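Q: Sequence in, structure out?
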Amino acid sequence: MSELEESLYALLWNNNISVAIITIISYEYLLQFEKEVTFVWKRQWSVMTYLYLAVRYFGILVVMTCACWGGLFYIPQAVSYGIFVFMQWGISAYFALAKVILIWRLYALYNQSKRILYVLLGLFLPIVALYITVDIYLWSRPSAISMEEVIITPNIKYCTAFFHIGPMPAIYASIPILCYDILLVVLAIVLLWQHMEDRKGLKMKPNSLVVLIVRYHVVYFVMNLASQIFMAILWADLSVEVMNLVLLFNDTAPFILVPRLIISIWETHATDSCVHVSTTFEDCVCWTSPPVLEQHEMDPSVSA
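A: Exactly. Output:
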């Protein structure tokens, strides 16, 4: 293909993926809106409520910006660079918020253990610093990445990003983040194992909320592992097809999973069967008499 044909092909791929992203996120929002009204707007707010609203609506802002950038709508080159930097900083902020949610869930699961909370927050601060460093070094320096306007015809033109360094800095930066995610998922699995052993001794089924939270920790870890890998390989010389499919995953999966993590737990608590036992995690799944786990999440003094 000629250079002009390659540019047009890349634009068509970008626009198709952008429409797919907008469609998927919009459908997901409409799908979850009724549950959001039930479990957020009609309930007493807590810290977890604010975290949900942050990841839901800030996430929508970031992903819609990502979908519109790059060709679906014409954006001048000077403005395009600023929007691109916002996108990358926004994605980092979103993943940081997702980790805060996981930390808060573990804090509730471990019976409000201050030691667990302080250790996880202490280790989380260097991760935040790493996010900031990566956003400055990789995404905010013109020497690392730049915008170029591609003109196909006088009426068809778009801006695209050009990477000037290889994928190794992004790969190295992702290692501490993945190690922290491994710590979170291991803590969740260890607690589930202990919980199942306790319930086995009582000849009872595991608490559905505990199982659900741990399951989401594992799913989030797998999703974030894939996302970190994909973010790193974006700096490699990828084909148009692979690049756009990677962007489709990165711009949809995290923004769907994290809000569902919260809503699904609230919904399970409200609709599942209920068995009261004298243990740390009671199988009470009604909003009027919540278990210790959900009291942590809904009591404003704890604000889990």
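The CA atoms of residues 167 and 235 lie 5 Å apart.
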